[in-house]
Amino acid sequence: MALLKLGPVVAGVSGSIGGTVFARNRAGAYARARTKPIIPVSARRDVVQARLTSLVSWWHDTLTPAQRALWDAKGAASTLLNRLGESYTPTGMNLYIRSNALLHLAGTALVTTPPVNIHAPALAPVLAWTTAVGIQISSIGLFLHTFSGCVIVRHSPLHANGENFWKGPWGEATTFACSTLSSLPKTIVASALLTANSRSFIELQVVGYDGSASAKLIAHVDVGSPA
């Protein structure tokens, strides 16, 4: 595995070129030979694949030309960030799948027209761990719980306390309405699922019922020893 020192010509690399994969971990940027991963068969993987297949089919076969035109126009007028933090213009189908894949994951109604604003307000929670309860959201800062949407929360397998990077795969999603944030704290990982002296990575994303979505927030919580 080769390490990379990025300079003024190339500021960041992500993905693969030919037989080389460029990535980043806690030690910095690196390059490795590209290999074909073995994807284990799982019910969750099958659900994700079926969801994406259905959305592509619905885009082509269920949406009307007028509806697809709305998504295309919204995509052309919008920007998203890629893995390097750079802006790009999505296609209409990109936006349609982005919106509805998240709504499907949240178990809420899908949308056929794009949201007015594709960016939902981001959640900036304070996460805390207690021995008796588990990992909780103890504060949401300036986030308005009146936003018409929900929060999708997923957590990683447990890690040693020194680990500081996790990219997935994430566990099953837990979803709750933004309106429930008016009553805090809110438990997102029960203490029964935690192990003493470990670290849990938490992924949170706000999804509007209109199909808008915030950027993913990834944080970690260190679990101490039982009192």
Description of the molecule:
- The protein has 227 residues and is α+β, with helices and mostly antiparallel strands.
- The chain has two domains: 43-106, no CATH class; 126-223, Immunoglobulin-like.
- Helices cover 20% and strands 30% of the residues.
- It is built from three helices and 14 strands.
- It has helices at 43-61, 65-76, 92-106; strands at 2-3, 15-17, 20-25, 28-33, 80-81, 87-88, 126-130, 134-139, 149-155, 159-160, 174-177, 186-190, 198-208, 217-223.
- Strands 9, 10, 11, 13 and 14 form a five-stranded antiparallel β-sheet that branches. It has a four-stranded antiparallel β-sheet with strand order 1-4-3-2, with no helix packed on it. A three-stranded antiparallel β-sheet has the order 7-8-12, with no helix packed on it.
- Helix 2 (65-76) crosses helix 3 (92-106).
- The longest helix has 19 residues, at 43-61.
- The chain is globular, with a radius of gyration of 20 Å.
What is the typical, i.e. mean, pLDDT? 84
| CATH overall fold name of the largest domain | Immunoglobulin-like
DSSP strand tally: 14
* N- to C-terminal distance: 43 Å
Major sheet: 5 strands, antiparallel
Shape summary: globular
The CATH architecture classification of the largest domain is Sandwich
Helical content (DSSP H or I, runs of 4+): 10-25%
Low-confidence stretches: none
* Gyration radius from CA atoms, angstroms: 20 Å
CATH class of the largest domain: Mainly Beta
